[in-house]
Amino acid sequence: MQKESMHWADRIALQVKQRVEKNEFLKKVVKKNGCIVYDEKTPSGTIHVGSARGWVIHDCVAKALRDLGAKAKFILSSDDMDPYDKPNKELDESWDKYLGMPFRDIPSPAEGYKSFADYYFSQATEKFREWGIDAELESTGERYEDGSFNEQIKTILDNADKVKKIYAELYGEKGYAVKLPFNVKCPECGKIATTVAAKWENEEIYFECGNAVKFAKGCSHKGWISPYNGNGKLPWKVEWAAKWPMKGVVYEIAGKDHFTKGSSRTVANRIAVDVLDYPPPLPSNGYKEGKGYEFFTVGGAKMSTSKGEGMAFKDITKYAPAQMLRYLMVKSRPAAVIDFDPYNEHDLLLLYDRFDKNEDEYFSRGGDKVQKRVYELSRTEKLPKKKPVHISLNNAATMVQIALYDVGRAIEIMKKQGMLNKPSKQDIEAVKSRLEYAKKWIRNFAPEQYKFELNEKADKRIISSLSENQKKALRLLKERLEKNDYDEQGLFNEFYRIKEEANTGTKEFFSAAYLALISKERGPKLAPFILQIGKERVIKLLEDAVSLTG
After folding, report:
1. Residue of 93, 128, 174, 373 with fewest CB within 10 Å of its CB?
2. How do residues 84-104 score in pLDDT, each as one tens digit?
3. Backbone phi and psi for residue 224, each to the nearest 5 degrees, phi listed first
4. Is the pLDDT of residue 305 over 50?
5. Rounded to whole angstroms, how far apart are CA atoms 386 and 424?
6. How far apart are the C-alpha atoms of 82 and 70, rounded to whole Å?
7. Whether 8 contacts 333, CB under 8 Å
8. 507 CB-near residues (< 8 Å, 6+ apart)
9. Domain ranges in the chain?
């Protein structure tokens, strides 16, 4: 595989910059608005972690554009004018009476939020600081109400025949191929999904509120109404195109399912070019959709917000820190599938290991420029001035159990054992963070093989079951630890000398040691484990075990 010469976010930012420089129209757009990187999300329920991939991509591209000297910002809009179109699995049947209404007009399921939409959107965006996502948040409904969409609404309705033709070519004679591309919010019942717009005359729409959809019933109200200032909305695929000139968008990507031929991006691009006379933002080029990003799956499962399936964005940091998850997304090209399983120890241990290696690369002289850029873009906080101290997740899990889940005590043990030598405040915070997560991991997700409880004294029943050679090995190990100081490699070598003297097999030697220390036949790597526990404590346990051998 050819080595990358530029991080994907920098490559995209450069493409955006070059495209703007070659297009006089876009030059004027950017001069007025800056480089707008845009994304949107329908707050139909708890927002799942798959959406985070798009947010991180857009955030990185906006940062990369700013690094090129552009005035760029990432805007994330809540598509809160969308209708409540299927029951939310998190709510009971009493909420079904709101089906067909805009999410922004439905009460919040919890106190402290303006609406249903605000509740679910805020659940996710309240985590943005933790993730290092710098986004300007807005409401699509507010943009309708303040008239921001009025120009695009008029242009689209004036050119309704063109829009119908686009739909007919792609989907046949149905839906918006035969009706006006606008959804009126019924002034009587407040529903937006149940209306059908039939005529457009003199800046007003004639509509009927009936049985346009199966999931909600209309009130039979009919009449003429202005489409402007929040009296309705454009259908989503049309609305997508309308947002680009309304905001001056130069970059907006979405999941790959939106970028297949004949998809929502196909419709939006056609409308942008043929009706609104606006160049679709990258990664599209004219009618060509470009490529969307691959899915972020959890344990192989794609998430769905509206169906209430998958892992919530607001909850994912219970399983892994935002710093690690952002790094996972930043290091992966948008076209690469990411699958993360917090219950798979290999996923977690490897993720931590790779992050630490990336941090080492960043602080090394020379080093790979792309990897250094990965580190810069993956940081959720200010870049540290010097390399933080590393403790692997595996070692952190061991230390926190040795310290009986007391993080402060674990840090003191590490200082005493020389694992933290004159640590700075930054070092202490880095180690503390890793220990806190390790504690959470061990208690909630780690497989049994990583869990242990250090003995206070040897178990007589277990020790008596050992062979004479195993008992001899324990006596020799105690004696050697009393007489000598070891580093990890030296102690490991000593194990094999003891094994030979006691005439035990490798498996028998190690199982005897683990049984004496934690009453399990397996445990953390023995040499570092003994050093982490501390020689004095290990000698005491071995002495107790040896005393039971007779």
Report:
1. 93
2. 999 999 999 999 999 999 999
3. -105, 145
4. no
5. 10
6. 33
7. yes
8. none
9. 8-138+241-296, 150-233, 393-450, 460-547
Kindly tell me if the per-residue pLDDT of 310 is higher than 70.
no
Q: Are 248 and 45 in contact (CB under 8 A)?
A: no
Q: What is the pLDDT of residue 550?
A: 60
8 A C-beta contact, residue 338 and residue 301: no
Residue 418 has pLDDT above 80, yes or no: yes
4-27 residue pLDDT tens: 789 999 999 999 999 999 999 999
pLDDT of residue 1: 39
Residue that has been written with the tokens 């929502």 in this structure: 264
Q: Is 185 left (phi over 0), alpha (psi -120 to 50) or beta?
A: beta
Q: From CA 531, how far away is CA 537, in angstroms rounded?
A: 10
How would you write 448-502 as a 3-class SS string?
HHHCCCCCCCCCHHHHHCCCHHHHHHHHHHHHHHHHCCCCHHHHHHHHHHHHHHH
User: What separation in angstroms does the CA of 25 have from each of 15, 22, 302?
Assistant: 16, 9, 39
Taking the complete model, does pTM exceed 0.85, yes or no?
yes
Which CATH architecture fits 460-547? Orthogonal Bundle (1.10)
Residue 360, both tokens: 């080492």
132 bridge partner residues:
none
pLDDT of 311 reads 81
135 C-beta neighbours (distance < 10 Å), count: 19
Question: What superfamily does domain 8-138+241-296 belong to in CATH?
Answer: HUPs (3.40.50.620)
